[in-house]
Structures are given as structure tokens and as C-alpha cells.
Model the fold of this input.
Amino acid sequence: MKKMKRLPKICFIDVVRREAGSLDPPLNLVSLANYLLSKKMVSKSDLRVINSAFEDVLSEVKSMQPDIVGFSVMTPFYNDALRLARELKKITNAKFIIGGYHISALPEFLEKPFDIGVIGEGEYPLVNLVKLWQKGKISSEEYLKKIPGIVFFDKLGKVVRNENEKIFNVDDLPVVDWSIVPPQRVVKYLTIPVDGVGKSMRMTSMYTARGCPYNCAFCAHRVITNGDRRVRYFSLKRVLDEMVYLHKVYKVDCIQILDDTFAVSKRRLRDLIVEMKRRGLYKKIYFYNLFVRANIIDEEFAGLLKELGTTTVFIGIESASQNVLKIIKDGPLSEEIVKTAIEHFEKEKIFVTGSFMLFSPGETKDDFLATLRLVRWFEKKRYAFAVIFSVTTPYPGTKLWVEAIKLGILDINKLNWEDFVMFYLGNFKKMPKAFYEPNWAGKVEMYRYWRKYIRISAAVRSNLNKIDRWEEAQVESAERNKLVEKAFLGMKRAKKRYRRFMNDPKSAIGQLIKRPMLIRWMIDDIKVMLSG
Ligand code: B12
Ligand code: SF4
Done:
């Protein structure tokens, strides 16, 4: 009888930083891991996807003893990844593979303790690497040489870069099975305006396509597709299967689609609406902060998005200055185009998150002030949902990066990757490093402007209180998230609570009688946990 080859134990780590990263489950890694599962390259029980800032990576790895550790790393977190990998090397002999935007943009910078870097989309290279691991050849230069889409070290320690992997067929991707992460991590409660009323919704994220036809100067997305500009749509059947699964198993009623950019085709939108109606999801699932481009929004497009169930959209407004837009943004865009798009959304009662970029290359004081006027105009809009603002950052692999190196703005030998944060998710007051320091403002003045954005952003948030039932829904979301978080703390705490309940059942029952909705919420969440 032929001997079965053992499958490796794999631990994926989403490397993030508490102040700039998010606790959201990394959809990219979850779908990558699912691809391995679908190809039977790993078994569910030997697979973990963890978050470096919010989980205890060292003890997870110690107890799991994986054969492969996969690090997903964006540029601002590269130093953390390196530190973490060095620590982990002391407790495991696993192969260390690094993937994601940073190594994809700078493959020739592969350094130990990472053994292998994956350039671009990870699906095909990872399957090939697992096959090598099974054969016991994952350290063999001769075998590694044959795998497209990777970098590795040869016998002399020199970095070898293989040819790129070909563009991936997205219909090969299975429906994302979220049961590989704890159920409490899949869904969070978020308050969304639905038909004029604030509602606490169960939200998660998914992809419906990969790629973007544009090439904005600040955006690193093309390092993942090796420059390919095509949008690869997932089949509607697969998209709908995933929505049905999320709705049935996780009771999701709101989805954020994290495609590079959503809604570039009206036909696709129409088909999506038809399919949602046919599969019984119409008005059962709503959409939150869909990434859209203002220049493709007309009356019909906004109407279609409304019909789809879109509650809020996310628009990269970036700047009011034609001069700045020309430098940083691809495709036709102007203040007028942005304003018209926002007005189309307003007619459809779709809320808008506007994203602005501060201190861009070539930005004059007049440009900056024009953008400030635009953000103030936006602030007063009835359907303004949020103002997001960041500092223009020249990420490796972007047009800005190439230009900045050429002009000597960046010296590749003196870079601190921690500077490459464009906004601090956990602390908006902290201003990231401005790579393009203006000649019309010093540091103090720049920060004064930054604070203006903080105030405008807070004002927009507080305007939402005018929405019917908004505040109640906010309280509900916060409390339900707290309950979910508690559940995540695990059996140990649950046992403790049970003991406390048994010691003092009267006071616990008293609490529940006072607030009976707690029981319904707990039952909902327990059901979801069991089904997950
Ligand atoms: C959605 C998104 C977000 C979301 C969700 C992120 C998430 N964790 O899912 C939010 C809004 C939270 C976010 C926040 C940030 N983001 Co963001 N985001 C994006 C966006 C729009 C799409 C990313 C995506 O999901 N792509 C699709 C997936 C399938 O591709 P992928 O992530 O590249 O994964 C594939 C490969 O990289 C590879 N891979 C990835 N990891 C690994 C690991 C291993 C072991 C292997 C083998 C392969 C592998 O395989 C994957 C599957 O094919 C891109 C811009 C764009 N249009 O592409 C920016 C982008 C990724 N973000 C970026 C940045 C900088 C950030 C922030 C750091 C911003 C900040 N605070 O300063 C934060 C960090 C948040 C965090 N991770 O905690 C930059 C990264 C640039 C860089 N060189 O690092 C991008 C490219 C935008 C830009 N300006 O160019 N982001
Ligand atoms: S910023 Fe958005 S529109 Fe521009 S290239 Fe990146 S994904 Fe595409």
C-alpha cells in the first residue's frame, strides 16, 4: 500500500500593530488558507490564522509546533515582523515564509530568518511549496528554483528571484469557510443607517473580484498582480453561495466587500441584484462602505447601488486640487466629478465616507486650502457618513516610490519602515510622518491642520446622532460586541462566570430580568458559535 504523505501544520500570522492595525480577521489569509484546504494541502485541525497584535503568537506557536509559519506583512509592520520572526526562530524549526505587499514590492530584500518570500498572489506558490515540504525538499535549491512567484536563498546565501507566477484564475477559489477562525472573530456589530433608521447589524467582509483597472500613484495593488490591470470577477454563483453561507451560518446581514475597487461595471451590478433576488437575499443583506470611484458614478449607477442594498459607500476624494489629483490619482477625477457623485448618492439616500489625502507631492497652500473647503462642504452634507484622512505615503512598488527614490526624497538605505503608516487606526490624533513636507508650513502648522481634520471628522460622526434610533443602535452594537468579546475570552472565563452564577444566582437572574434583551442576544450568539 502506498504510504500517505503527512500534511504540514501551518500557522499564518497577520502581522499588524495595535495602533495602526485592525482586529478584523484577515480576509486575505483566511481565503488563502481556504485555498490550501480545497487542494487538500492542509487539514483544518492543523491550521491557524492569528493576529500578531491581539493574540499571543509565541504561545500559539509553542503549543502548535507548526511546520510552516506564514507571515503576511505590509510595509509599516515589516520591522515588527522581523522582530517576531527572530523571537519565533528560538522556539521552532518551522520554515518561515513571508508574503504580502512588502516582500512583493521588494523581493530582493528578503532577509533571514525568513526562508522564502512569496511575490504577489500566494495561492499557487503556496500549494507548490507545501508539495515540496511533503517531499522533504523545501530547503533544496534545485527544487525551489522551479517554483514561480518566490524568492529564496541559494547555497551561498544569495537571494534568488524566480519568474513571476501567472495570473490566478479566481474561479478556482472555494467559498470562504470561516470556521478556521473562532466564530467570535468572524462577525462584528456595526451601526448602519438602513432606510433612514440606525440599525445594529452583524457585519463581515468578503471579496467578489480581484484587481483594479486604475493605477493611482500612491496605490501598491499592482505589486500583487505583477502589473496586471484586469479585474477578475468571481462567478456570481460563487459570490452568492458565499453570501448565503454567511447569512445562514453566521446570521450576517451586512457585508463589506473588500475588492480593490468595487462596482466598475453596471452590468455586473445588475446581474448581482438579479441573483440576490433569485437566491432570497434581497433586503436581507445590506452593504457597507463599498469602495467606489466617483468618476464612474452617474444617476443610474447610484440607483443600482441603492437597489443592491448599499447603505454607505467609500470614495477616495483625496484632494480638491486638479494639480494634486493629476499627480496622485489615475483616471478622470475633479472636485466637480466628486461633488456630482456625492449628490447622486444623496438622492438615493446612500451615505458617503469621504477619504482625503494630506500633504501630497506638489501640493501648494492654495491646493491644501481648497481641499479643506471641499471637506467642509462635505461635512455639511446630510448624507456624509465619515471623513477619513491620511498622509500621502510613497509605498514600495508605487509610482510615488519610484519617483521619490529618483528625486532623493527617499534613501533606500536609511528608511524606517515604521514611518510608512498613513493613519493610526487606534489613535487619529497621532500624525504619521509626512514624506512630502510642504514649504509653506512647518511641523506645528501641519499638525494644526491635521487637528482640523480630526474636528471635522468628529463633527460628521456626531451628526449621525440625528438619524432615527442611531444612539440606541450604537449602544446595542457596543454591548453586543462586548458580549462577543467576552465569549472569545474562552471557556476559562465562562467557567468562572458559571461558578459566580452558582454562588449568587439571585443577583445574576436579577440582572437578566432587568435587561431581558441580553438573553436574546446571548442565545443568538451561542447559536452562531455552535453552527460555526
Ligand atoms: C481592504 C484593504 C484594507 C482593509 C482590510 C485589510 C485586511 N486585513 O484585510 C483595511 C481598511 C482595514 C485596511 C487597513 C490598512 N491598510 Co489596507 N488595503 C486594503 C486594500 C484596498 C485591499 C487589500 C486586499 O484585501 N486585497 C486582496 C487580497 C486577496 O490580496 P492581498 O491582501 O494582497 O493578499 C494576497 C497576497 O498579498 C498574498 N499574501 C498576503 N499575505 C501572505 C502571507 C503568506 C504567507 C503568503 C504565502 C502570501 C500572502 O496572498 C494573498 C492572496 O492572494 C489595499 C489596496 C488595494 N486596492 O489593493 C490596501 C492596502 C493593502 N492597505 C495598505 C495599508 C498601508 C494599510 C494600513 C497599514 C493603513 C495604515 N493604518 O496606515 C492598514 C493596516 C490594517 C491591518 N492590516 O490591520 C497598503 C499596503 C501597502 C504596503 N506596501 O504595505 C495598500 C496596498 C494600500 C496602498 N496605499 O497602496 N486595508
Ligand atoms: S486607489 Fe483604488 S482606484 Fe486607485 S489604483 Fe488603487 S484600488 Fe485602484
About this structure: The two ends are 36 Å apart (CA to CA). DSSP finds 18 helices and 17 strands in the chain.
